[in-house]
Amino acid sequence: MRHSRVHAAALALGGLLVLAPVGVTPDGCGDLTGGRLCVEGPVGAKGTFTTRYVRHDTTAPSAVQLGYQRKDARITAFPGWFDTLRTKEGSTAGAVRLDTAPGECVRGLMHHDGRDYVTEWLCSDG
Fold first, then answer.
1. 90: Cα within 13 Å, side-chain hemisphere
2. Which of 4, 38, 56, 61 is in the most buried spot, having the most CB atoms within 10 Å?
3. Please, what is the end-to-end C-alpha distance for the chain in angstroms?
4. In a domain, 119, yes or no
5. Is 25 exposed, middle or buried (0-12, 13-18, 19+ CB in 10 A)?
6. What is the dihedral of CA 65, 48, 76, 35, to 10 degrees?
7. Virtual CA dihedral for 54, 29, 26, 96, nearest 10 degrees?
8. What CATH number should be reported for the domain holding residue 93?
9. Residue 41 neighbours by CB distance under 10 Å
10. Does any domain span residue 73?
11. pTM value?
12. Total structural domains in the chain?
């Protein structure tokens, strides 16, 4: 009887460990193997939007090209790119001032070593 209770408790605990989230990716971000790419800004209003890349390994500097992309219910716009930037102490960022409308979405972009990476869309409520 005691063995059954211990086994049941171990299964319940194991289920919790399997279902527990390792970490929640913030809105407007995308987790990459080597780091995290995020876009931040006041979607649905006028303001500064920042695309930021933070590497897990901060020792080796890396050159990346960051940018952003917008979409609404009708179209997905061509990307806007910043200059190629080098990571400093594991991170780099580029910013642009945009006037976004309610219902619009923005995502961050990164181009590195011939590959493109994107964040999740960050959308306004309207």
1. 9
2. 38
3. 58
4. yes
5. middle
6. 40
7. 80
8. 2.60.40.10
9. 22
10. yes
11. 0.76
12. 1
Whether 38 is covered by a domain: the verdict is yes
- Gap between the Cα atoms of 26 and 111, Å rounded: 21
> What does the alpha-carbon distance between residue 61 and residue 58 come to, in Å, rounded to a whole number?
7
DSSP assigned state of 6: H
As a whole number of angstroms, the distance between CA 8 and CA 97 comes to 56
User: Torsions phi, psi of 49, nearest 5?
Assistant: -110, 130
Q: Write out the residue range of the structural domain in which residue 88 sits.
A: 25-123
Q: What is the DSSP string of 12-38?
A: HHHHHHHHS-S-PPPTTEEEETTEEEE
**Dist. CA 126–CA 51, nearest whole Å:** 22
Residues β-bridged to residue 54: 36, 91
In single-letter form, the type of residue at position 84 comes to: T
**Residue 38 tokens, joined:** 């995020």
Which amino acid is present at 36? R
Tens place of pLDDT per residue across the chain (126 aa): 554 443 333 333 333 333 334 568 888 999 988 899 999 999 999 999 999 999 988 766 688 999 999 999 999 999 999 989 998 888 999 999 999 999 999 999 999 989 999 999 999 986
Look at residue 113 and tell me if it is in a domain.
Answer: yes
